[in-house]
Amino acid sequence: MYRSHLTSCIVTLVLVMACHLNAQAILEELLRDDFDRYNSQTWGTAPVGAEIVFRNQLNQTNGSIRMNPRAGGCYIISDEMFREASMEFEVKVNSLSTDSTNFYYFGFHNTQPWTRDLLWLVVQDSSIKLQARENGGAFFEQQIGNIPFDRWVKFVISRKGKQVVVEMDGRAVLDLKRPEFSDSPMSAFFGANTISGSKRADLQVDSVQVNGDPALQAAALRETRLISEEEKVIASRSQSVSGGDWEVVMHDGEIRLSNPEASYAFSLLEGIQWSAVDRREGDGSVPAISPGTACPLYVLRAGDQNLDSRDFPLEEVSVSPGKPRFEVVQYDPTSGLSTRFEAELRDDSSLGLSLEVTNRSGVEQVLQTTFPVLQNIEIDGKLDNLNYFFPWRGGLLGTVASSLATEYGGLGWMQVMAVFNSEARSGIFFYPEDATGTTKGLMLKKAFPGSEDRVNFSEVLYPEEMPSINLAPSSGMGMAVYYKRQALQPGGAIAFPTTRLKAYDGDWREPLDEYVAWTREWYRPVKVPRWFKESYTFLNQHPQSYYDNEKDEYIGARALVGSEHVVQWAFWESLKVPHVGPNYNGHPEYQPGDFVPSIHRGGLATFNAEIAAYRAKGTRFVPYINYRFCLRASEVGTQHTDWAAIRKPGGDYIWSPWPEENLNMCFYDQDKWAAFIASTTQRLVRDTGMSGIYLDELPLQHACFNPAHRHLQNGSPTSKQDMAESLTMVRDAMKAADPQAVLWTEHVGSDYMSQFIDGSWTQTYCRAFPFTEKYFDANRLVYFRFLFPSVKLAEWGSSERHINRYFFNGMGWDFGTGDRALSRVLGNILKANSDAIQTMTPEPLVPTSHPGLLANRFDAPGKIVYTLYNVHDQGITAFISEPAPFEGHYVELVDDVEISPDGTGQMQLTMAPETVKAVVLLRNILEVSQTGGKVVVSVPEEFASSELLVYADVDDSHLLSSKGIAMSLNDGSAEFTVEQTFDFHPRRLIIKLQEDGYLQDQRVLVISPAG
Q1: DSSP per residue over 432-501, as a string?
Q2: 538-549 in b/e burial notation, b at 16+ Cβ within 10 A?
Q3: What burial class does residue 281 get, using C-beta atoms within 10 Å of its C-beta: 0-12 exposed, 13-18 middle, 19+ buried?
């Protein structure tokens, strides 16, 4: 986690480009990135060494991208390509050379081949030149001026055919037509190069905007296909089948499946496309998609050809006898591709949608498939009330105009997407019924007429796989699932997972509940050790926090105060023979590969002593290892370069941005690096007493094209099955050394992959993604935590509502951010009530008496814990609405206050804005009485061996120096005198009964005044 997540954010911004699916026009703005809003494009090449910085430190919302390479180039290039377009941008050059060692590039460029087509401005020293070339031909260069140093400059480059106009700060500096000016589609390109010398190139870029005529771009709008007479005959047939409460009717070019709860219709007038998706209620219905819509079911890309379900002529349509099911076979003679689409109405009113593609041509075809596609969603015709759920990381629930994309198996942890109308209580959801963990892309867009997206964000490992589909060309919503490219041999067929789609009655709960119910048919998670599930505060430390270089000694454990449940170290390792070469990516204390405790800090002996010191204070030690990083100079790196991953076919073991001395290893083959990591983690757990390993970046499935690796020989640069086996091998190896050891990762990757790990960081709301807290945090929920409670989750990184949110969710958090004193209190409350908090059936958002009061419920036998959150902008007095399921009493645990009925008999709790509380319903176990200065506590016989603790005024059980007094229970009772027990006269006593570390009952006794 040491590396900057800002850089990863830059890489993953997305542009959803021109539409192949709908003949409606798209906006003329083709690309926009202000580098402070998540509303833009995928930059196809990772910006090596780039970072987001603020243009003005007094205004920390106005960002820019800074490229400052130590040596070589650092650039960004858009995935999308533009022909006739105008590009407007601002740049600031922070470093100019006088010996041509710094270069900068702004404009249009094709990187494959490198300089075959280009049209850009080049800054050499302070001179600006326009350079151009078409198709590798003659080279054109013309100087147009000089660039000022350390000042923002606005440029406009306009292309129309062979005509180019360049403006600088509003002044035209070039207007020229030349044969060397390429009119081919080219990507937007910005770069900075440091050739040699001590002065590094330093470029900032902001406000990139490309406008143009979309009809002239690489992606053209679809034209209506002419329908053959044979198709007209097929589509015009009439047929009906019914049974019980369902019917299938084919008539007038439409086929409809319906029952009393739902109706789904498909048009056959041009191929096949959606016609209607309705939820029925009584005699009426609630439409989910706009009437008269023109929306395809699927999109296929074969080579450079895009085809959707309307482009495939009908070959056969059949309705199944006795079943609510139909099948459509289509064939496109131009591409030689044939499709078989099936739809079946199920007993629960959902649809099962299936697609198979066959290559009937005589040549291999590389196929990229998007299925299903659903556009023009406007439930009940009210776009303002349209909410959506998108399964990025922990899950996003919002209403804002947006364009979102992620990958299941990467940063999308579930497969379900949903849209619902909050007022009409109607929605539509779908998910592939794929229990194999196969990586697939997920896309969702919501658009209002004439407005731009508030959030346009993608986080994908494989941006080249994203289809150019505009899911909401003008307004409304769209959702789609896409699959990675597959080679299809002549005569071969690909069957895609059946998708379950449903028009339903409800809000966000129904689709998530139904998705989880489906996963329980195959989901088999590991058994997570109790100590780990009951850890909530995670202290991440770097060397400056745990080692004193001046005194040459570890200092981490002695600084512990209490309630630091897990400590995680970075940069703790060195090589067996200390490395004296260049720093590992600029970190001199980081030497991965041999994974031995730092030799210059005393090696294994001092390392083990520090771990023992942590354990003595109740803190577990789970250090950081990146599962890929390895120095070439290490023992394993020297002997097994062949274990390294190759990023691109025919490429090198170097994986940008790491320097040449480092390898990035492959984690798929179990007989190579994965086996080494397994034996290494087993050795570390066995020899040091650490409680497990945090393997960073797992289980992201980076592609590896090393021809020596089994997974590639089996035909795939990635392998979910090999990743799962490697995870299991590492976890099993550690558990052989210590059955209580855990495997902790940076990401879940998918619910499928979560079956093989103990826990993971999540970063849904961390500071790297400010849009999530702004637009997607109304419920303050991390949805995955409630849907898959067997996985231990903790949030990494600070945010405005950091500690409050994760306490409310009953999950862990990064202890090093925010108010540590509050973290200690809240973490201790969760730990003492983990018997409820770690229930496998947590219930989010139970009813309360005020809309601004959110409440989650966590049950245990004879105990219910509610975490409460006041999201109202004012203080409120409110409470949980559901009745107590057993006789007991309520205690608020943050302030240790018993809650009694008010004058109306209602339970009430007053909370300030943006605060959290914990209310627990406890059985009436403790009986407490006071006579004078004498206090008597008694419990039923079955609790006579329980632990009784008494705190004066303040519950400080979260501290190692806690002043809580343990009382002995004799025959189920304890007696003590306040003045003899405490050296002062407290105002109240907080009396707790605990069993096996869990709170069983608590009473708060107000002490009578002294004398």
Answers
A1: E--TT---EEEEEEEE-TT---SEEEEE-S-GGG-----S-SSSEEEEEEEE--EEE-TT-EEEEEEEEE
A2: bbbbbbeebbee
A3: middle
CA separation for the pair 727, 752 (Å, rounded): 12
Going by their DSSP bridges, the two strands 573-574 and 547-548 should be labelled as: unpaired
pLDDT (0 to 100) of residue 77: 86
pLDDT at position 294 is 75
pLDDT digits (tens, 9 = 90+) for 353-372: 999 999 999 999 999 999 99
C-alpha dist (Å) from residue 687 to 499, 546, 739, 870: 49, 20, 14, 47
234: helix, coil or strand? Answer: helix
pLDDT tens string 95-112: 999 888 999 999 998 866
The secondary structure of residue 665, as a DSSP letter, is B
Q: Residue 606's CB: how many other CB atoms inside 10 A?
A: 16
Interatomic CA distance for residues 944 and 968, integer angstroms: 9
| Strand partners of residue 643 | none
CB atoms within 10 A of CB 694: 26
Residue 505, Cβ density class (10 Å: 0-12 exposed, 13-18 middle, ≥19 buried): middle
The answer to whether the beta carbons of residues 239 and 318 sit under 8 Å apart is no
Task: Give tens-digit pLDDT for 232-254.
Answer: 999 999 999 999 999 999 999 99
Per-residue pLDDT of 705-718, as tens digits, reads: 999 999 999 999 99
CA gap 511, 414 in Å, rounded: 12
Q: 901 by DSSP, 3-state: which? A: coil
| Integer Rg of the chain from CA | 31
Query: For 406-457, how does the pLDDT look when each residue is reduced to its tens digit (9 = 90+)?
Result: 999 999 999 999 999 988 899 999 999 999 999 999 999 999 886 766 888 8
Spatial contact of 557 and 630, defined as CB atoms under 8 Å apart:
no
- Looking up tokens 């910005």 gives 190
* Contacting residues for 714 by C-beta, under 8 A, at least 6 apart: none
Tokens of 791: 């996985």
**What residues contact 222, with CB distance under 8 A and at least 6 apart?**
19, 20, 21, 22, 23, 308, 310, 311
Task: Tell me which DSSP letter residue 223 carries.
Answer: P
Q: What is the longest distance spanned by two Cα atoms in the chain?
A: 104
Q: Specify the DSSP element, H or E, that contains 514.
A: helix 509-519
Kindly tell me if the per-residue pLDDT of 56 is higher than 70. no
Residues 6+ apart with CB under 8 A from 358: 337, 338, 339, 340, 491, 492, 493
Q: How far apart are CA 702 and CA 718, in angstroms?
A: 7
Under a CB-based contact definition with an 8 Å cutoff, are residues 956 and 825 in contact? no
Give the neighbor-by-neighbor strand order of the sheet with 863-870: 853-860, 863-870, 916-922, 889-892, 897-899
Q: Which of 271, 276, 264, 200 is nearest to 235 (CA)?
A: 271
68 phi/psi in degrees, rounded to 5: -140, 65
First CA to last CA across the chain, in angstroms?
Answer: 58
- Residues 194, 196, 197, 198: is their CA dihedral positive or negative? positive
Residue 515 token pair: 């998705």
Strand residue runs (E) in 239-336: 239-243, 246-251, 254-258, 262-267, 273-281, 284-287, 295-296, 299-302, 305-308, 314-319, 325-332
Which position has the token pair 């923002």? 152
Tokens coding 5: 């997540």
pTM for this prediction = 0.84
Q: Which amino acid is at 17?
A: M
- Collapsing DSSP to helix, strand or coil, 383 comes out as coil
Task: Residue 351: name the closest of 477, 496, 503 by CA.
Answer: 503
